[in-house]
Amino acid sequence: MGSIELEAFDVSRIRNFSIIAHVDHGKSTLADRLLELAQTITKRKDNKQVLDKLKVERERGITVKAQSASMFYDYKGKRYLLNLIDTPGHMDFNFEVSRSLAACQGTLLLVDAAQGIQAQTVANFYLAYGLDITIIPVINKVRLNRFVGKIDLPAADPKRVASQIEVAFEMPADDCLEISAKSNLNVDQILPKIIETVPSPSGDINKPFKALLFDSWHDTYVGVICLMAVIDGTVKKGDRIVSAHSERRYEVTETGIMYPEQTPTSSLQAGQVGYFVLNMKTLSESHVGDTFFDHKHIGTPMPGFVPAKPMVWAGIFPIDTADFEKLDHSIAKLTLSDSSVMIQKETSTALGQGWRLGFLGTLHMDVFRQRLEQEYDANIIITAPTVPYKIEYQDGAQKLIRNPTEFPEMDELNAKVKSVQEPMVRSTIIFPKEYLGDIMVLCGSRRGVQLEHTYLDESRVLLKYRLPLAEVVTDFHDELKGRSSGFASFDYEEDGYDDADLVKMNIVLNSKPVDALSIILHRSQAELVARDWVKRLKSLLSRQLFEIVIQASVGNKVIAREGLSALRKNVTAKCYGGDISRKMKLLNKQKEGKKRMKAIGGVEVSQEAFYDFMSKKK
Ligand code: GDP
Ligand code: MG
Predict the structure, then answer these.
(1) Domain 210-294 architecture
(2) For the domain bounded by 503-617, which CATH number is listed?
(3) Which protein residue's CA is at the shortest distance from atom 11 of ligand 1?
(4) Could you tell me the pTM of the whole model?
(5) Check whether domain 11-197 has CATH 3.40.50.300, yes or no
(6) Which residue among 19, 29, 120 is best mutated to probe the pocket of ligand 1, counting the most ligand atoms within 8 A of its Cβ?
(7) Which residues of 433-468 are buried (b: 16+ CB within 10 A; e: fewer)?
């Protein structure tokens, strides 16, 4: 394959832009349409999004990892190099959105014509606004004409959405482009609008080389691949560059653009966005937000990004302890392609050896689990997620807790701890006004404090609440959907730590504490949760040959208790008499059942029971 020459594309011929939107509003579909328009890809028959490369992305229809793509587009007699950066829409991946935006001068703010502005539309708008990027409002899924067939969504109401955009973002309703990514309506107006309104990058080709690293991943064949926005100068194969973060030097072994697959170029220069292959050994050497310089001209680094902090921690254990090595290998491999996951080893008396993993949010955790199961065939148990808590002791010592087992027991808490703090979030919730009462009750029951209450139009409400993150990471989103018939959308951003009256609840099975089931709770909720947990545990545990006592305790105090009486009939009794093959069948069946069991506190718990319990299914 020959390499593409990009020398003719000086900054005036370059536009770097992204698409931001609430999930499912059509970003990836529009990205495909734009690439087709610029003939970077040909239309796929199966209609799958080209930019969603991971299997889980295809299955879930969400974009987890930002993917960028370059295209060439002729406009008014000139050829332009346009770099599109597709961004993930879910709040867990806001970090990916902001680092993608840092490489852009413009963004398309895409809003579904039937759904209107949703919580992530608001969050993404403010990310772009804060970076001073040109924002082009685009309304998607618009029907061609009210009277011409069912070209697109019958419920589309672009005029209403345009006025919401005016109310929420102070952008004139008339400026909104009305398109349909599905039927291609007005899609041809987008690239010209980008060329006309988005400023070209401001770099200088005559200055020494300088570039911003905004994404990286591991490729089985080539090793570490870095996506960079070249700020100044030029770079080509054989050049030596240096990282501002680590001061390590690298030789450039390949440069190229995502077209949309990796395509080598003879060089990359000021304003261009492309990939670099450097002699990097591991992904951990590529620090997102890092600035690279020509090795002889080290200047001032770019501001960089605040790294994503994992805010949801959970223990992962193999169902079968013999799988430990294999799982260890799988987790190591999977984290190669997802550097935002933090790992440490963990040992639980109930579940054996495992890992404690830190995720950006619960969706991130879910995606990771699903990839482990699908791509690596893993059989795992994952504990209830915990947020990080800060403990300050009276002697001034501080501790960050990511595992309920590390939380001080009651006597220590009373005698030595000065304060316990929990992470807080500012959340945005948008929904039709008839659900207002129910949603306010929900937020109140989750210790929320209302910050704002506005109407986007006569029927849609925007609420802002300050809530403890711990209340949000469990089933808050499901509850919100349930109480609003699926119409509420929700997003949050971190908002510091607050003092809180927290305690640790332990679950005790036949007087043996099950460490993997310990949980940190607000004192006021302990009793309610305790009763719910022991009841649910009782319904999920199967009766065994002995009596099982299930208790929940805080400190020395038992706050809830359930009992499961012993099974009277002995299973082996079934084996007497009858024909031998039936007996063997029964024994084999029991053996198979055993494989999927985990002995916890001397009580056998099936994988399903544990899993259902952890995922709060009744
Ligand atoms: P993303 O989550 O923002 O990337 O959204 P996708 O591009 O994955 O699209 C979400 C869903 O909306 C998919 O089922 C698309 O087929 C559909 N979709 C995208 N654009 C349009 C459109 O213009 N009209 C209609 N009716 N559906 C669309
Ligand atoms: Mg997508």
Answers:
(1) Beta Barrel (2.40)
(2) 3.30.70.2570
(3) 24
(4) 0.76
(5) yes
(6) 29
(7) eebeebbbebbeebbbeeeeeeebbeebbbbbbbbb
